[in-house]
Write a structure and sequence with these properties.
- The protein has about 280 residues and is of the alpha/beta class.
- It has 2 domains: about 1-90, Elongation Factor Tu (Ef-tu), domain 3 (Beta Barrel); about 100-255, Rossmann fold.
- It contains 9 helices and 15 strands.
């Protein structure tokens, strides 16, 4: 059981939780994730560790209430307990040695991109952050990203924040303006990462992506998180979640991520119905 120390809404459907998990906090590094069940009857879901405090023994989680399990997690409040949680899982992102980096986050992916950028900045790397959201009401972590970025380019699909465009527009503009990057780190929806990688391939810039396939046990045993990288099958939970973006078969990943969409919609509607009846 893991106590929720702090909870707050970042926007209408995105929630920040700080949980007491000292053994996880003691070992966590940027890029790693946990798998949790909020309640006894919940499915297991992976969530990337958005931050950690080794001294306080806490970890930060940021998630959208878009599925049945995240809805159950979102229903918990400060002082409540997450049923079970395991981690840190996956390989940490290899961030040391870079002098100049662009960190690209799309939507909720910014919750994962932020700790990467923060680590890079704290270790002497120049960091530009390009963050994209559908509209201004969905923007999260703006102050945190600005604090660790040499330049923050904040874009919205509809231009409601005064800066319309896609993250690829922002990244291309910086590159064509003379920015020289040792690495680009892209984290967000698979379709976004795909087009970031197509762009960076044009310029020959090393690109790391964090993949989010279907995942169950987090140990490589179930095979649910398999992805194709460089023509070979990999398991995101143990071989990743970070991979060379120029080698990932994004089209396959997008198809596999959609496999259970109808069931997820059904479960969410059922859960909403139970809540309204209550």
């Amino acid at each position: 059981m893991y106590k929720i120390i702090e909870k707050r809404a970042l926007n209408r459907d995105t929630i920040f939780i700080r949980a007491h998990a000292p053994y996880v906090a003691a070992k966590a590094l940027p890029g790693q994730f946990i798998i949790l069940r909020p309640t006894e009857d919940s499915e297991r879901i992976p969530l990337t560790i958005a931050g950690y405090d080794r001294k306080a023994g806490t970890i930060d989680l940021i998630f959208q209430t878009v599925g049945a399990t995240t809805m159950k997690l979102g229903a918990l409040g400060e002082g409540d307990y997450i049923k079970d949680l395991v981690g840190p899982l996956g390989k940490p992102t290899e961030l040391d040695g870079y002098k100049s980096a662009a960190v690209v986050g799309g939507g909720l992916g910014c919750a994962i991109a932020y700790p990467q950028a923060k680590y890079l900045s704290e270790h002497g790397c120049r960091v530009d952050i390009i963050a994209g959201f559908r509209n201004k009401d969905l923007i999260i972590l703006e102050e945190e990203m600005r604090a660790c970025a040499d330049r923050l380019v904040l874009l919205t699909d509809d231009g409601s924040n005064g800066n319309k465009g896609l993250v690829t527009d922002g990244l291309r503009a910086l590159i064509e303006d003379g920015a020289k990057y040792d690495v680009v780190i892209a984290i967000g929806p698979p379709i976004m990462m795909k087009f970031v990688c197509l762009l960076t391939k044009e310029y020959g810039i090393k690109t790391i992506v964090s993949l989010n396939p279907i995942m169950i046990d987090g140990t490589g045993m179930c095979g649910g998180c398999r992805v194709t990288v460089g023509g070979e099958m990999k398991f995101a939970c143990v071989d990743g979640p970070d991979f060379d973006g120029h080698l990932v078969d994004f089209d396959e990943l997008i198809r596999r991520n959609a496999m259970y969409r109808e069931k997820e919609i059904h479960d969410c509607n059922l859960l909403k119905g139970i809540a309204s009846d209550g």
